[in-house]
Fold these 2 entries.
Entry 1:
Amino acid sequence: MTIKCVTSVVVGVSSFFLGIWIDRKYREHNISHRIPGFKIFDAVYAESNVVNNQQLVINNEQRVSQIMKYGFPSLDNVRSYNNFVLSYDQRNRIPHWVLEHLTPESVQYNPKVDRALCDFFEDTSIHEFFRATNKDYKHSGFDRGHLAAAGNHKASQELVNQTFVLSNIAPQVGKGFNRDAWNDLEKYVRKKAKNNKNVYICSGPLFLPKKGDDGKLWIKYQVIGDNHVAVPTHFYKIIVTESNKSQFYLECYVMPNQVIPNNIPLKDFQMPLEVIERASGLQFFKRLTLDKFIKLEK
Amino acid sequence: MTIKCVTSVVVGVSSFFLGIWIDRKYREHNISHRIPGFKIFDAVYAESNVVNNQQLVINNEQRVSQIMKYGFPSLDNVRSYNNFVLSYDQRNRIPHWVLEHLTPESVQYNPKVDRALCDFFEDTSIHEFFRATNKDYKHSGFDRGHLAAAGNHKASQELVNQTFVLSNIAPQVGKGFNRDAWNDLEKYVRKKAKNNKNVYICSGPLFLPKKGDDGKLWIKYQVIGDNHVAVPTHFYKIIVTESNKSQFYLECYVMPNQVIPNNIPLKDFQMPLEVIERASGLQFFKRLTLDKFIKLEK
């Protein structure tokens, strides 16, 4: 009787877990096909591993949670890399948003890293109908502007290489913007990262309306190349700083995608968060409630 | 020995399925919190129940699977109703796409249904930053144009009411478009639905570029109201018909959002699927591979 009991219990318990295991295996397979988010993450990692013949993405799930600690602005075509996560706008062939997480360690400059070794490369995880190519930018008159800045990720060659994926890029006016005012804003962020515990930066494009001669509001922007890559009218950067005393600070900037005179101070581009949220259709750092902030943007 | 064997088998098999059942229950709960799509469905149903004091959405999960049988074009802000499912574009305050499933039964006209009793209503499941309002359309000169057509859902007052949610609406030129050419296309779809087993229709906005005097390509569109609701340059309709012999047919149409002369035949607006996919950034009916189609659009 006792032996019968023990056998039944052993068989019962092991069947119970076998059931769970087989069902999970089966469902994982199914879910990865049903919900693109899951599949895409895997696909990106697999693919990233062979970019430029270098081993790239390691231990991703944990890193994505770190970067996205305060919430995803949206879940449309999300792609993840070591130090940044982005959402790709298939209609405009540029990112919706790119979120970086920087620390004093991550922005350390490794003298062996050479930006000149980097090449812009297509994101083959994006369907060819929606994929921006180097050819689209050629002779367009626009720079291939980084959203996650190359200069923020110079701790290793692999990390800086990742920022050259074209899904992290949008057409930017070169002289007077990408190489000047926007670059100054990137340097300002980097300085913050060196002196604080954590800095989270969300960068992206805006398409802002203008009043026409008819008194109506119009959104107008150029598209370049065979794939009609959209040229944003503006770019935003939202910076959340967690100080060494674990206090939070928020600053938001909006810059027009045009030649900006040298003498305009950075603070003139500050903008309330709500303006950027309304214009982009996104909500940022939703998990950080406003009462956590010591200093909000003016 | 035989009894021991039988007991073990019975215990084993039942534990196996008990394991699956408990694990699924537990995981369902978890997944609904991790994947916004699922949670949103629940929220929408809860909210829909009190719209116009009428009991609306019943047995949803199954109905959503029916409507979306051949795949979701995207997963951005999905909302579901009895006869249609939509994805809302928070930046443009109009749908990305609206997918309807029609049958000979569903398009039957119930004489008790009165469209005049319907009021356009705001979608309170959308954050107020991104929500289109009736005020936005007032005095704009544009109609509140249905994507899922009111006329397709006259089997009951509840069903037709659902099509008046503003997340199913986009600004359309009234006379010469919404009330004419676009309406003719809707009637054509309805006729198809009456004579076939199943009709699936995906409708949505397009923002198509035009060559400027400078030789460059520009996208230009008006935005209306305090919430800057985008006025699309064009609208598309993709129609998949499953005939009574279970054969599949595909037709795609693109119409400019402007006064269209009466004498242009419907077939002049036919467009290859790929053109709509490239312009919208979406892929339609992905689960229906092209070899299934008897007749493709020209």
Entry 2:
Amino acid sequence: MNTNAVFYHAGCPVCVDAEQQLAGALDPARYQVEIVHLGQQRERIGEAAAAGVASVPALVIGGLPLHINFGAHLTDL
Amino acid sequence: MNTNAVFYHAGCPVCVDAEQQLAGALDPARYQVEIVHLGQQRERIGEAAAAGVASVPALVIGGLPLHINFGAHLTDL
């Protein structure tokens, strides 16, 4: 069974390495990871907020929002 | 090749589910995940700080410290 995981970011240059390392570290046998750049896909900001995302980068996995380090508040995008 | 990943936490009740979900989601073929409870293993606080960990829960993966949500500052442990 594959669980969806969504990694939201906004291109934060300081965090891109860390972001991609974490998103790429998930078990591909169990997780299907989608990467969403909210600066480029602003129409998905509402979806991220509804999932509980308050800042980026964030990983929503199994419905849980995990905020990873800190790039920007969602309200600043 | 297995990469070491260390998940530092301090028993934060709000975060345990999220923590274990993320630590358990890493690809076991590539990552060997160690869980460290810094409240119980205070002798490892220095090691966590040296890795760049400022707060828990945090995952150090490939040498990069990723702070996940927020439980407590390392200095408060």
